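From the methods appendix. Each design record in this collection lists the tokenized structure first, followed by the designed amino acid sequence. Records were kept in a plain field format so they could be parsed without special tools. The example shown here is representative of the layout used throughout.

RECORD:
FOLD TOKENS (338 positions):
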């Protein structure tokens, strides 16, 4: 939870000499760019490049038609800082062990790839922190340029689990993004990621089948819960039911761990009813609580990106206490069919 105590003046994007990076408010606190009390500190430095996005995703605060504040992404504020100031702050925080990764979120625009290359190069010169770039790349050449600049991995957000939900919420072609993900993962194993958002109109079965196919290609999945943001086209839509998200979340973790497959599960009307394992086996597998933590790149915990600090927590940004894990497992098992 972010409780501002004293926020230093952050420079307006138009008033800075040189490049400007927007830094998530929680990351800015960890980096010492602003003062705030955190009850869950981000372990990744989250950065955003670009102005209002040329794309028009129905759920996104940065969308072309969005009336949301321009410094927001999901529930988070992203104040701007000079790039060199942010890079040096990340270098210091990484040396102290406070952040273990940096992640650039890049809005779409004609100069987006070039700006991302320059940002990755600048950060790579300042610190050896692993860098991820989340960008709407259009070709293998663009992806490879970012990897060559120093990115450890590149994420191309699919977001929607089916062509139908993609068409309702995004522009362009689901099949084209899928083909690019497949080609990039084949060329650069272990260095390609994507995002899936629960709650865009897909069934649990559809999302988990897509997740399994992505994992079999070696693609890292960042799992998100749809979050209605005022000013977006889906501002009045409902977030997914927590019990549905938990079934998907646990299923994704079981798939990643190689403990079971979607082919062994049972679905009723698209809803997951049975993981094809006994309650005892599931309780043993899930006992550590990692299944309920934020899923994405290593060391990505995204505190309160999808939820209010008061809860409910879709993604735990920290290890679960034993009692928390047991409570989540019991609640999950209670939603499955007998």
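DESIGN:
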């Amino acid at each position: 939870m972010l409780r501002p105590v004293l926020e230093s003046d952050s420079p307006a994007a138009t008033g800075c000499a040189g490049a400007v990076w927007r830094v998530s408010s929680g990351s800015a606190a960890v980096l010492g760019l602003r003062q705030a009390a955190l009850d869950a500190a981000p372990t990744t430095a989250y950065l955003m490049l670009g102005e209002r996005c040329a794309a028009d995703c129905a759920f996104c605060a940065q969308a072309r038609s969005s009336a949301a504040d321009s410094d927001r992404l999901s529930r988070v504020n992203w104040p701007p800082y000079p790039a060199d100031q942010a890079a040096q702050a990340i270098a210091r925080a990484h040396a102290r062990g406070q952040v273990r990764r940096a992640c650039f979120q890049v809005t779409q625009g004609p100069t987006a790839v070039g700006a991302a290359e320059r940002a990755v190069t600048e950060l790579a010169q300042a610190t050896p922190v692993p860098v991820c770039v989340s960008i709407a790349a259009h070709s293998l050449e663009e992806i490879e340029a970012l990897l060559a600049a120093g990115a450890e991995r590149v994420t191309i957000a699919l977001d929607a689990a089916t062509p139908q939900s993609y068409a309702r919420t995004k522009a362009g072609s689901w099949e084209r993004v899928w083909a690019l993900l497949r080609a990039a993962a084949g060329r650069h194993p272990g260095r390609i990621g994507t995002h899936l958002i629960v709650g865009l109109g897909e069934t649990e079965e559809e999302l988990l089948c897509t997740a399994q196919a992505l994992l079999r290609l070696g693609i890292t999945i960042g799992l998100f819960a749809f979050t209605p943001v005022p000013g977006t086209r889906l501002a009045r839509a409902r977030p997914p039911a927590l019990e549905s998200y938990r079934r998907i979340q646990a299923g994704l973790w079981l798939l990643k761990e190689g403990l079971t497959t979607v082919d062994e599960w049972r679905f009723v009307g698209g809803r997951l009813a049975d993981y094809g394992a006994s309650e005892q086996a599931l309780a043993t597998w899930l006992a550590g609580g990692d299944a309920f933590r934020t899923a994405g790149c290593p060391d990505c915990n995204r505190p309160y990106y999808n939820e209010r600090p008061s809860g409910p927590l879709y993604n735990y940004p920290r290890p679960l206490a034993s009692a928390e894990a047991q409570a989540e497992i019991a609640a999950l098992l209670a939603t499955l069919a007998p």
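APPENDIX NOTE: Residues 289 and 325 are 5 Å apart (CA to CA).
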